[in-house]
UniProtKB/TrEMBL annotation:
Protein name, entry field: NOB1
A GO term for molecular function: RNA endonuclease activity
Domain of life: Eukaryota
Pfam families (UniProt xref): PIN_6, Zn_ribbon_NOB1
Lineage: Eukaryota, Fungi, Fungi incertae sedis, Microsporidia, Enterocytozoonidae
Keywords linked to the UniProt accession: Hydrolase, Metal-binding, Nuclease
Source organism of the structure: Enterospora canceri
UniProt entry tagged with the keyword Metal-binding: yes
Domain Nin one binding (NOB1) Zn-ribbon-like: 141-190
Length: 226
């Protein structure tokens, strides 16, 4: 049975391996499609991926991914970057469609669309992980933010916990299992306190300070300009 609430982005290797995407909406890029021009590949697409749509990401999405990769040790090809950019772009569109502020519950979970990437390329997987996105196998996971001092959960990323005041907020994954929200904590994960500094490199120790207000104002202006 095909999942109408899932969108798949698929790479060359996944197509050649005839990966079962389990959804009607399947996308790839023109670059991937061009790598699959031989007779055998076209037969696979014609038999297995009849609904495959070829779509290129916007220049803006490609720019975002390239900027993200500037200080990363990544050797992604142009085709890989375009594929990640397409996944990023569709993911953003689906977030807007779902409503970013909607609290995910066991009741509405099945109505919310997911976007998954089908790839076994470790380079692509590493970039997706860095972007906070998920490849195939993690499509049911979503993220919230947890203070590891007092364990309060937040929907949005914040610097200081509103309950205990510490800079101990970390992103954690959740899944819905048997109708219950379950937290996914990585084994051996080392939790570290955030280090927040002003423009002069001085560490900001608490939220209720002039320095932190200036920091937030500067952060918002940078986000707006980007």
């Amino acid at each position: 049975m095909l999942n109408n609430n899932q969108i798949a982005v698929i790479d060359t290797c996944a197509i050649l391996k005839r990966v079962d995407v389990g959804t009607i909406d399947v996308y790839t890029t023109e670059g991937v499609d061009n790598e699959l021009r031989d007779k055998e590949s076209r037969e696979i697409i014609g038999q297995k991926y009849v609904n495959l749509k070829v779509r290129n990401p916007s220049e803006e999405s490609i720019r975002k991914i390239r900027e993200f990769l500037i200080d990363k040790k990544s050797n992604l090809s142009c085709v890989d970057i375009e594929l990640v950019a397409l996944f990023y772009e569709i993911h953003r569109e689906v977030e807007e469609e779902n409503g970013q502020d909607e609290w995910i519950t066991a009741e509405n979970y099945r109505k919310i669309k997911n976007v998954v990437m089908h790839t076994d390329d470790n380079g692509i997987r590493g970039v997706l992980d860095g972007l906070g996105l998920q490849e195939s196998g993690l499509s049911d996971k979503y993220y919230k933010y947890r203070c590891f001092t007092c364990f309060r959960i937040y929907e949005d990323d914040i610097d200081f916990c509103k309950s205990c005041g510490y800079k101990t907020i970390t992103r954690v994954g959740f899944i819905i299992k048997n109708g219950t929200e379950v937290m996914c904590l990585k084994k051996g994960y080392e939790q570290k306190e955030k280090k927040i500094c002003d423009k002069n490199g001085n560490e900001i120790g608490c939220e209720d300070t002039v320095e932190y207000k200036k920091y937030i104002k500067h952060k918002k202006s940078k986000k707006y300009l980007s």
